[in-house]
Automatic annotation (TrEMBL):
One of its GO terms (molecular function) is peptidase activity. One of its GO terms (biological process) is proteolysis. Belongs to the peptidase S1 family. This is Serine protease. Residues 1-17 form the signal peptide. Keywords: Disulfide bond, Hydrolase, Protease, Signal. SMART domains: Tryp_SPc. It comes from Streptomyces tubbatahanensis. The keyword Nuclease does not apply. The keyword Nucleus does not apply. Pfam families: Trypsin (PF00089). Residues 33-273 form the Peptidase S1 domain. InterPro entries: Peptidase_S1 (IPR050430), Peptidase_S1_PA (IPR009003), Peptidase_S1_PA_chymotrypsin (IPR043504), Peptidase_S1A (IPR001314), Trypsin_dom (IPR001254), TRYPSIN_HIS (IPR018114).
């Protein structure tokens, strides 16, 4: 399956996007945090991109990060396929560890997809980033952008509301409480960051991405985690280093791939001003 979107494509199938979708043509097959734990630290900038899912008007679709008072950064595959998504169908809950309550809620004004992202349902694209402009400003503190791409041997904190088991494919089973896990960064030329036996290089690392390993072969992101922040620590505070995009193969057992925020900082600042 493609990226880890919240389209809720079945987790555990080969190569996935991290979003959750439940209708054909919906962007986002999601990912989840597997092998992690519920967050105990408040993150003012975490965001849940939501829309009507069945009877739930606040169905979680993808993660995101508040980077300015009226801008959230997420994965491109969360908001676009081969057809444009209607931003008015979405809203964003920001700054709560519980995706069903708390924090601040804002409607979505528009989506801005990275101009070099190319949607395909059979492979992952470089530049898997999109900016979500909110219809009104919120008061939560945004995340600062990392100035450097995480290097091999660094640790990043992957976060989100994705599935906690690789067999998940039912949106009603997504965790309500925010989860996290610390993952080691691999060198970008590590073979398993580029390909796996089943899918070849279809979902592997691309220009501008970084890659994390899966401790004990059973930890990482999965469906529902798409678009959520990958964080690093600098000067005593968390900063946004990457955005959850996809797995090279099966979730939690093959490396996870993230577009680097530092590599795309010029585009982000050009759009958000």
């Amino acid at each position: 399956m493609p990226a880890l979107s919240l389209g809720l494509a079945a987790a555990g199938t080969s190569a996935y996007a991290a979003q959750v979708s439940d209708t054909p043509g919906d962007p986002g097959d999601q990912t989840k945090i597997i092998g992690g734990h519920e967050s105990t630290e408040a993150y003012s900038f975490i965001a849940s991109l939501q829309k009507q899912r069945g009877d739930d008007p606040d169905g979680h679709y993808c993660g995101g990060t508040l980077i300015a008072a009226d801008w959230v950064l997420t994965a491109a595959h969360c908001v676009t396929t081969d057809t444009p998504q209607d931003p008015s169908a979405y809203h964003v809950r920001i700054g709560s560890l519980d995706r069903t309550k708390g924090g601040e809620v804002a409607q979505v004004k528009k989506f801005v997809v990275h101009p070099d992202y190319r949607y395909a349902d059979e492979e992952g694209s470089a530049h898997d980033l999109a900016l979500v402009q909110l219809s009104s400003e919120v008061s939560k503190e945004p995340a600062p952008l990392a100035s450097q791409t995480p290097a091999a041997g660094d640790t990043v904190r992957a976060t989100g509301w994705g599935y906690t088991k690789a067999t998940g494919n039912d949106p009603s089973q997504l965790p309500v409480k925010h989860r996290e896990i610390d993952l080691p960064v691999l060198s970008p030329d590590t073979p398993k960051c580029a390909s796996n036996e089943t899918d070849g290089d279809a979902w592997g690392i691309r220009e501008g991405d970084f890659c994390t390993d899966n401790p004990d072969g059973e930890a990482g992101t999965c469906g529902g985690d798409s678009g959520a922040p990958a964080l690093t620590r600098a000067a005593g505070r968390w900063q946004l280093a990457g955005v959850t995009s996809r797995s090279v193969g099966d979730c939690a057992s093959t490396p996870d791939i993230y577009p680097s925020v530092a590599e795309h900082a010029d585009w982000i600042r050009e759009v958000t001003g």
